[in-house]
Amino acid sequence: MSDFEFRRRGLRLVASVSVAMVALGLTACSSDSDNDTAGSEPAVSETRVVSTDKGDVTVPADPQRIAVLSAGFAGYLYTLDAPIAITDTRLLGVTNLDGGFPPQWAEKAEAQGTKELPAGEELNIESIAQAEPDLIIAGGQGYSAVLASEAYDQLTAIAPTVLIPSTVNTWQGELEAVAEAAGESDKVEGLLQAYEDKVAEVKGSITVPGSPVAYFLSLSTNEPSFIPQTAALPTLLSEVGFEPEDIIAKAGNPELYGSGDSFIVSPELLAPVATAPVMFVVPVAGRTLAELQQDPLYTGLPAFAGNKVYELPATSYRPDYDGVIATLDDIQEMFAT
Hints:
The protein is globular, with a radius of gyration of 22 Å. The protein is of the alpha/beta class. The protein has a 5-stranded parallel sheet with strand order 5-4-3-6-7, sandwiched between helices. Strands 10-9-8-11-12 form a 5-stranded mixed sheet. It has a two-stranded antiparallel ribbon with strand order 1-2. The N terminus is likely disordered. The longest helix is centred in the middle third of the chain and has 16 residues. Strand 4, helix 3 and strand 5 form a beta-alpha-beta unit.
């Protein structure tokens, strides 16, 4: 079940769940021996303060059991080698209520012994408590972020809780925010440099098939939907030479859906809006490019008629760091000179 379908339902939370308070109090780092040398390094503070929209939150300096309540953040934490005790697994267009880790980080999750947070229309507070986390990271975009915000007081009774605001909607911003919460900020600069190097490599090795470019979001509802040029994917590909169509203006400045990275048009407006000579299709629980190519509503669009429409995986829509690199790899393979 996708974010889009979840948002249309009434939001309900667990009325009351009894949870045990997990003590944050970590003892000071001191030697068990009386034979410490006079030159020993002083103990490092075992807590840090992270500023959030809920105020300052005191978190462990080096968390050992992190609960991740938004699956979109788990990939960043695995990239940062942070220890995840339990995580939500619902990644838009990739997994659903049936469970199972998203393929792109399933191996890392299994290696760490991460447990799956049972999925549902309510946040499973009891499972979170049983995982005994010393830090909870939640928030971001999507239905799971709404549940975590509503259950904030219950979560803080389990462990220090950092909610990443939905206004942090670039992958760079999410990486930095998640790394700060987990005490892994020292790794961010190296990852960003590797990204810049990858962009330069891809840009120098491809031929862009034309411009401007539109981004079609294929949903389970079969409603014609587009990704605005301000969203993550068009912004990413503009870095390697794909000039995005000003699709928002073309569509008459429609209201952007949810977190501002999609909008829907009527079938009657599809042809006037989808005039770009190049298009990427991103199936998010919707029809594939091959299926859309059998639909007369789409076959006459310029990109379809000119055979310049290309498919990217759902993980490119709201990509984490690994998703960004994987998307750049896909682009390099598709358009190599």
